[in-house]
Specification:
Strand content: 35-45%
Structural class: alpha+beta
Number of strands: 17
Largest sheet: 7 strands, antiparallel
Number of helices: 6
Shape: globular
Helix content: 10-25%
Distance between the termini: 51 Å
Order of helices and strands: EEEEHEEEHHEEHHHEEEEEEEE
């Protein structure tokens, strides 16, 4: 049986490429979100609202309401998938074939640096535009680490390589571009303060790259019910899954056990013992437990996790 992980891409016969967002298919469908459309002989990336409008007008059968997640997204029946793009397989192909352009050359350079520090590239992949070979000269590198231990090691290696001068931290221009693309509700100063602590972004040969974590052994799915928006302050009790997809923070707060974050903007945002302000949607699981969801939409407008510091 084929397993689908977040950060995988799936392609249909109509020339649509969707990013997988959940490991648990529903009714024979893979939960995902449209990212690329084949138009005029080339692949065009679609922003969130643009993707929703495109499907409403042309392929409404891919629009999906998930009763388990209590949210609207996209879904593709497994029988309609013509190609399953997998990050690890794509990185292996780049390593075997050699770089075909400047972006892939930088992937090889970065892979060599990581290998020299003992990172197991068999558990690393590339996603984003590189995954389907539509990168441009200006493209970033999106690395995916499979397994928490390997991700944490890779993150530590990035920190060490920055200190050694073999990788570089993002400069102000890089941070401003990252902030613009994220469109988060934090101020620019607060955004950068949080990001600098994460060591999941750096620059290789002038090209930005980032790291994300996929834990392949995802738990069993649950049913959720949205209760409405909430903003509160709480203290982080357990940050061990702060970089997971979704990120999970156990918190100290009456009747609410955790924050669950579906947007990379707030992955790794806070650490044990820190006081945070969180704004998101309160949800209740089938067992009666409650949590706050940050990232109920891709951009998570008006939703955030912010450390109260200074």
């Amino acid at each position: 049986m084929t397993t689908f992980h977040p950060k995988d891409f799936i392609e249909t016969a109509e020339g649509l490429v969707f990013a997988v967002v959940d490991s648990h298919p529903e009714q024979g469908k893979v939960l995902c979100f449209l990212r690329y459309v084949l138009e005029d002989g080339g692949w065009r990336k679609k922003a969130t609202e643009e993707a929703n409008l495109f499907l409403r007008q042309r392929h409404a059968d891919y629009l999906h309401y998930s009763p388990r997640l209590d949210t609207h997204l996209h879904a593709v029946e497994t029988s309609r998938i013509v190609e399953h793009h997998q990050p690890r397989r794509r990185l292996r192909a780049i390593l075997e074939d050699g770089g075909r352009d400047a972006v892939e050359d930088d992937v090889l350079l970065l892979a060599g640096l990581l290998t020299e520090q003992g990172v197991d590239l068999a558990q690393v992949g590339v996603t984003g535009s590189l995954l389907i070979g539509v990168q441009r000269d200006s493209s970033d590198i999106d690395l995916v680490c499979y397994g928490r231990e390997g991700f944490l090691r890779c993150r530590e290696v990035v920190r060490e390589l920055i200190e050694q001068g073999q990788l570089q931290s993002l400069n102000d221009s890089d941070w401003r571009e990252s902030y613009r693309r994220r469109g988060c509700s934090l101020s620019y100063g607060d955004y950068v303060w949080h990001e600098r602590r994460k060591y999941n972004k750096a620059v290789v040969n002038g090209r930005k790259f980032d790291l994300s974590l996929i834990e392949p052994n995802a738990g069993e799915p649950d049913l959720y019910k949205k209760l409405g928006p909430v903003t509160l302050r709480c203290r982080i009790a357990d940050d061990s899954r702060a970089f997971d997809y979704p990120a999970v923070y156990r918190i100290e707060y009456d009747a609410i056990g955790s924050i669950i974050c579906f947007t990379a903007t707030y992955a790794g945002q806070a650490f044990n013992g820190e006081l945070v302000e969180v704004s998101g949607l309160l949800e209740e699981a089938s067992d009666g437990s409650r949590h706050i969801v940050v990232g109920s939409s891709r951009e998570a407008y008006g939703e955030h996790i912010m450390v109260i510091h200074g």
